Amino acid sequence: GQNIDQPTEMTATEGAIVQINCTYQTSGFNGLFWYQQHAGEAPTFLSYNVLDGLEEKGRFSSFLSRSKGYSYLLLKELQMKDSASYLCAVEDSNYQLIWGAGTKLIIKP
Amino acid sequence: DVKVTQSSRYLVKRTGEKVFLECVQDMDHENMFWYRQDPGLGLRLIYFSYDVKMKEKGDIPEGYSVSREKKERFSLILESASTNQTSMYLCASSLRTDYNEQFFGPGTRLTVL
């Protein structure tokens, strides 16, 4: 079967750094997406990785290791507005997105 | 900016009613998707469409049907609503199949009583 695992919830402090992990087992791999979803709102695209390594985009970075079936999203200089759920999704061999259940990130002052 | 709109943010229906959820995208995307999102579960794909008049079943199509008569519009139909279909319904669209970045509508929170 296909499976995406992420922690259910994480707590971090404003101004700090947090790493959200995602491990996956899927039928094929054509890329990995991270989305942000604020409560009651639609998911919005954050990053895409298809090759191994780190992709940096401002305060957010995403890392991929295809051999380990592993990715992480790194958020630096945390702000209160970063409180949201972070969804990991893998594009499988049929180009369908397989979604993790999401990680709820709580930022404390 | 890509815009995906859904006909209602909140909807309350009774068991057995026929329910229509409408989704429209304005960026000429080929691909459109319907998901439901429930607490503790990932987004689950109900149906998708890669072209007008075309539809494919996703992971949980039972109790649902879809219609895509025009490229920009993708409708989800609950033939006879049941309480276990109470959920958040999200519509999405994407331009390409080989790079499936999806753009989401605001969602419809459906309650079936």
Walk me through the structure:
With 109 residues, chain A is mostly beta strands. Chain A contains no helices and eleven strands. In chain A, strands 2, 4, 5, 9, 10 and 11 form a six-stranded mixed beta sheet that branches. Chain A has a five-stranded antiparallel beta sheet with strand order 1-3-8-7-6, with no helix packed on it. Chain A is globular. In chain B, strands 2, 4, 5, 6, 9, 10 and 11 form a seven-stranded mixed beta sheet that branches. Chain B is built from no helices and eleven strands. In chain B, strand 5 and strand 6 form a beta hairpin. Chain B is mainly β and 113 residues long. The model of chain B has no long low-confidence stretch (mean pLDDT 94). Chain B is globular.
Write the layout of secondary structure elements.
The complex is a heterodimer of chains A (109) and B (113).
Chain A: E1 3-5, E2 9-13, E3 18-25, E4 32-37, E5 44-49, E6 53-57, E7 60-65, E8 70-75, E9 84-91, E10 97-99, E11 103-108
Chain B: E1 4-6, E2 10-13, E3 19-25, E4 31-37, E5 44-49, E6 56-57, E7 64-70, E8 73-78, E9 87-94, E10 103-104, E11 108-112
Parallel strand pairs in B: 2-11
Antiparallel strand pairs in B: 1-3, 3-8, 4-5, 4-9, 5-6, 7-8, 9-10, 9-11
